[in-house]
Amino acid sequence: MRAVDDVSFTVEPEETLGVVGESGCGKSTLARLILRLIEPDAGSVTFLGEDLGGASRRRLKRLRRDMQLVFQDPHASLNPRMTIDDAVAFSLIVHGTAGREARARAGRLLERVGLDPRLYGRRYPHELSGGQRQRVNIARALVLDPRLLVLDEPVSALDKSVQAQVLNLLQDLKAERALTYVFISHDLNVIEYVAERVLVMYLGHVVETGSADALAVAPRHPYTQALFASAPSMDPSQRLVEPPITGDPPSPIDPPSGCRFRTRCAHAMPRCAGAVPPLIPLAADHHVACYLYDEGPRSG
Question: Which of 10, 35, 122, 212 is the most exposed place for a label (fewest CB within 10 A)?
Answer without folding.
Answer: 10
